[in-house]
């Protein structure tokens, strides 16, 4: 048992849920920040939640928000974390074009608020800090593959907010000798991925089409290419960064790139459908070779005002210094997400049946 204490912002998100599990397995006491919501928002961590009255409870949830500095200072003071993982963020790139100011407040200033909380409370010697930085920093890529030294060129309010968060983390490390590290993580997915990110949107839709409860999958840019890994691997990398003697910044990725179109093909192949692409641009469609049915259409609504065309990592530094590497292949990732969503859609249908 490590006996250490961790505080995680964004614990109700995909990565928060995997990281909380990992730290509990390692013997940590884990405090997570959840937002007040009018409906339940803890589904991803419900299975690790233990009644706090239980004397063996090591996982605790606290209300909080990255836009509320008094709340953050109090939570850091009360929990006195050895490790603070800042995973909370308005994390959807497209949504950041709709809510740019809020995104800057939570993603950029939220990071500053946490760093200041550590400083105000004089926890610089005790609390190690992890910042959830992102490959979106590279945006309009200046070099391929992207590594720690590749210049940044963000292409969205989200990317710009995360750029501030990246540099303020570096600045606090250099100014106040904080053990603060940036994980520059490339896209990572899982069955717990938010439903509006492209991979999960695809696996959910393919499962729903397979079960006959959806006709068409509408997507935006099919040509976008991403370096997709599994979230479970990546939270291990976050933890490793905070176990190093010296803080530093690391790229985590698979070193492999695939297009959205390829992801669609793989997902349909899982339910034994072969997709043929016809037409071009906004008129492109994906047709089921066997039945001739159109299953995929392009909807320009999902095009972004500025797009990040491709992202490909060079994770050599993490491999050499942390001994970290991605272990889940693209095929296995799609397979795991498809297997899960084929079940999830059925369960949702059952539930609906009960309310009808
Ligand atoms: P999710 O969107 O799944 O989770 C985000 C979490 O942040 C949720 O718990 C959400 O709460 C919480 N949150 C949002 N706004 C606030 C706020 N104002 N105050 C407090 N909490 C807030 O993201 P992921 O788990 O996928 O990503 C984790 C982090 O890593 C994010 O910072 C993301 O930007 C970054 N990142 C993610 C990558 C990926 O591929 N997944 C790659 C690189 C970086 P709620 O559940 O209530 O919405
Ligand atoms: P991204 O993930 O923007 O890379 O950010 P997302 O899955 O949203 O998009 C990936 C690519 O797919 C294209 N795309 C679509 N995207 C969505 N969401 N919906 C669609 O219908 C669609 N059609 C095509 C997008 O244009 C894009 O090129 C994720 C988030 O987790 C960030 O928080 C994180 O920092 C980065 O990954 C690394």
TrEMBL record:
Major enzyme class: lyase
EC number: 4.2.1.47
UniProt superkingdom: Bacteria
Catalytic activity: GDP-alpha-D-mannose = GDP-4-dehydro-alpha-D-rhamnose + H2O
Entry keywords, A to Z: Lyase, NADP, Nodulation
Entry GO MF terms: GDP-mannose 4,6-dehydratase activity; NADP+ binding
InterPro entries: GDP_Man_deHydtase, NAD(P)-bd_dom, NAD(P)-bd_dom_sf
Pfam families named in the record: GDP_Man_Dehyd
Domain NAD(P)-binding stretches: 7-337
Cofactor(s) of this protein: NADP(+)
Function: Catalyzes the conversion of GDP-D-mannose to GDP-4-dehydro-6-deoxy-D-mannose.
Family of this protein: Belongs to the NAD(P)-dependent epimerase/dehydratase family. GDP-mannose 4,6-dehydratase subfamily.
Name of the featured protein: GDP-mannose 4,6-dehydratase
Lineage of the species this protein comes from: Bacteria, Pseudomonadati, Pseudomonadota, Alphaproteobacteria, Parvularculales
């Amino acid at each position: 048992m490590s006996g250490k204490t961790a505080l995680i912002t964004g614990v109700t998100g995909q990565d928060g849920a995997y990281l909380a599990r990992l730290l509990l397995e390692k013997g940590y006491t884990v405090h997570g920040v959840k937002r007040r919501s009018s409906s339940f928002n803890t589904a991803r961590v419900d299975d690790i939640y233990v009644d706090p009255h239980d004397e063996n409870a090591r996982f605790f949830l606290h209300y909080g928000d990255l836009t509320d500095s008094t709340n953050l200072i109090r939570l850091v003071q009360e929990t006195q974390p050895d490790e603070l993982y800042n995973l909370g963020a308005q994390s959807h790139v497209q949504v950041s074009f709709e809510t740019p100011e809020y995104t800057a407040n939570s993603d950029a200033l939220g990071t500053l608020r946490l760093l200041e909380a550590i400083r105000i409370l004089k926890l610089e010697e005790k609390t190690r800090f992890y910042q959830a930085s992102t490959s979106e920093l590279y945006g309009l890529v200046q070099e391929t593959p992207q590594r720690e030294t590749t210049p940044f060129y963000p292409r969205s309010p989200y990317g710009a907010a995360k750029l501030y968060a990246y540099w303020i983390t570096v600045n606090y490390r250099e100014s106040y000798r904080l053990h603060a590290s940036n994980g520059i993580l490339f896209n990572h997915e899982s069955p717990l991925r938010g439903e509006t990110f492209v991979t999960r949107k695809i696996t959910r839709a393919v499962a729903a089409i397979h079960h006959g409860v959806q006709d068409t999958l509408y997507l935006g840019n099919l040509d976008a290419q991403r370096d997709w890994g599994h979230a479970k691997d990546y939270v291990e990398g976050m933890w490793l960064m905070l176990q190093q003697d010296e803080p530093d910044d690391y790229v985590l990725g698979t070193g492999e790139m695939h297009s959205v179109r390829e992801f669609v093909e793989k997902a349909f192949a899982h339910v034994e459908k072969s997709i043929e692409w016809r037409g071009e641009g906004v008129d492109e469609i994906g047709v089921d070779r066997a039945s001739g049915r159109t299953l995929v259409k392009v909807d320009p609504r999902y095009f972004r005002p500025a797009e990040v065309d491709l992202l490909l990592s060079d994770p050599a530094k993490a491999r050499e210094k942390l001994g970290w590497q991605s272990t889940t292949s693209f095929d296995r990732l799609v397979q795991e997400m498809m297997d899960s969503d084929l079940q999830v859609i059925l369960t949702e249908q059952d539930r609906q049946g009960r309310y009808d």
